Amino acid sequence: MSYIQGETGDWEIVIGLEVHAQVISNAKLFSGAATEFGAEPNSQVSFVDAAFPGMLPVINEHCIEQAVRTGLGLKAQINLQSVFDRKNYFYADLPQGYQISQFQQPIVGKGEIVLDLPDGSSRTVGVTRLHLEQDAGKSLHDQHPAKTYIDLNRSGVALMEIVSEPDMRSAEEAGAYVRKLRSILRYLGTCDGNMEEGSMRCDVNVSVRKPGEPFGTRCEIKNVNSIRFVMQAIEYEARRQIEIIEEGGKIDQETRLWDTTKFVTRSMRSKEEAHDYRYFPDPDLLPLELDPEWVEDIKKTLPELPDDKKARFIADYKLSPYDANVLVSEKARADFYESVAKGRDPKLAANWVTGELFGYLNKAGKEIEESPVSAENLGGLIDLIADNTISGRIAKEVFEAMFETGEKAADIVEKKGLRQVTDTGAIEGSIDAVLAANADKVAEFRSGKDKLFGFFVGQVMKATQGKANPALVNEILTKKLKG
Amino acid sequence: MSLDKATVAKIAHLARIKVPEEELDHLAGELSQILTFVEQLNEVDTGNVPPMTSVAAQKLRRRKDEVTDGGYRDAVLSNGPETAEGFYVVPKVVE
After folding, report:
1. Closest CA relative to residue A155, chosen from A25, A288, A29
2. Inter-chain contact B91–A146, Cβ cutoff 8 Å?
3. 3-state class of A151 per DSSP?
4. What is the model's pLDDT at position A270?
5. CB distance B68–A32 less than 8 Å?
6. Model confidence at A269, in pLDDT bands (50, 70, 90)?
7. Residue B63: its chain A contacts at CB < 8 A?
8. I want to staple A108 with a disulfide (CB 3.0 to 4.6 A). Which of A71, A237, A315, B82 is the partner?
9. Which chain A residues in 116-135 lie under 8 Å from chain B, judged by CB atoms?
10. Cα separation of A154 and A245, whole Å?
11. Closest chain B residue to A283, measured at CA
């Protein structure tokens, strides 16, 4: 458990998250307008989305399926009857004057998410509920000094609001929660998890307390749009609250914003009185009833999810929980790894995928789908190590060339003449030359300076441009030095 | 049930309806009367009656996930009091 040190002792942070995840669908939740990102302003708006009088909402059945699929992926209760309500408030990008949402009877009830923490341990966090709702339009404040521009393309796009229990106790856990939820949504294909484009946004509830005491008053930080910001905002907000309490003040329950340039949270006073949303059932929409068999059919189509995949990787490939986590976080990564590992040493394959490959991809800012080295070609490289054609050290050089050119390992090895020297005669020759040139060091070694062994190995490898088989070098060198 | 002036003023504000101070008393009276009238329904015990969601026995209609609408920006914007470059234009609202 991680506490924050205050003037008056330890403090515990209590965190709950509300994540808004945009549903992957062609059309909007209650209209037939398109959902594609980046279109010309107001070009994907129907009269329903712009709230023209008399227009009625008709629900998109695929969005219902996506919400149920997500609920099943979160091992949550699926509510066979749920109700759409109107959440009333006035804002320029909400043309109806209300958002169609779900209040008392959401489509998905209690579930859970297992957090994979950086030290390899796991922790389960409760999911309170998931409900379907409409997104609002987009306000652009930087187009005109005195005006706000409104684009309704996003108005009416389906969102899943996924609410956690106040189960997290550190910024790190909150970060792990968002990462894991994102991973599950992407596996399920229900949300693309793209936080930069706003398809996933977080509201963060933070309070502090002395360990063992009841929950303190919380503040809600709205619309945080990256995992890094979520973590920074929590750290800042917790310290702000502790400082106020320790100076004898009290926390006002309020909505705050994370300022991404000043790295502080600040109050959004104007939202305060707006909190009276006067929810009531939307008279335009009947209750949503689900057929239990239909839910079962969806369940049968769920993919293997990260937790199951991780357990399988640990059991079948004997990977560490850490490596397994890194590999299963994205389905494409896991698939890539499995094709490399097929018929090969799984641990060696994991080292190459998580080490060299991810390192190079990271540096190049590329996703695994764009990797210049295919799974097949990386497998080919590992085969060359396994059959002693090249050493592990030369393999790194070969990999670098593969990453640059996309060529096969075997071709690069041939072209550059990197084939490992396993001819004992040739290796012996190199060793003799090295020993003759360093007679003084040989004498030192023989008088007990064992550490010099590494120096001789290094010299031999240098003389053979790294191509000598290291095991043979060790063997022959030992014989010659001790003999 | 009777509403006081402060409650009426709050409701008016939530609905963004401007009500002059001198009309609040009168409106409080009228709204209270309406509520009292509707409260007669409380005389019926509905404890075991599920809420009626429709007068006809029908289910929520569903739509296929197909793009069938939109793409008529000019029509959508035609009722906007002010527009520019394909956007609705409103007074600055900034947090």
Report:
1. A29
2. yes
3. strand
4. 56
5. yes
6. low
7. 27, 32, 58-61
8. A71
9. none
10. 41
11. B53
Put simply, the chain A residues between 246 and 265 with a CB less than 8 A from any chain B CB are 257
Domains and CATH numbers, chain A: 4-298 (no CATH), 304-416 (no CATH), 424-482 (1.10.10.410)
Q: Tokens at residue A240, please?
A: 């702000």
Both tokens of residue A158? 């389906």
Question: Two tokens at A357?
Answer: 């490959």
**The tokens of A20 are what?**
């808004």
Q: Are B67 and A289 a contacting pair at CB < 8 A?
A: no
Q: What span, in angstroms and rounded, lies between the C-alpha atoms of A466 and A399?
A: 15
ipTM of the complex: 0.90
Chain B contacts in chain A segment 285-314 (CB below 8 A): 285-289
Paired tokens of A233: 């905002």
Do B69 and A33 touch, CB atoms closer than 8 A? Answer: yes
On whether the CB atoms of residues A385 and A348 are closer than 8 A, the answer is yes
Torsion of CA A335, A64, A174, A248, to 10 degrees: 180
Mean pLDDT, chain A, whole residue set:
92
Give A362-416 pLDDT, tens digit per residue.
999 999 999 999 999 999 999 998 888 888 888 998 999 999 999 998 888 888 7
pTM of this prediction? Answer: 0.86
Instruction: Tell me: pLDDT of A338 over 90.
Output: yes
Residue of A47, A59, A148 with shortest CB distance to B90 = A148
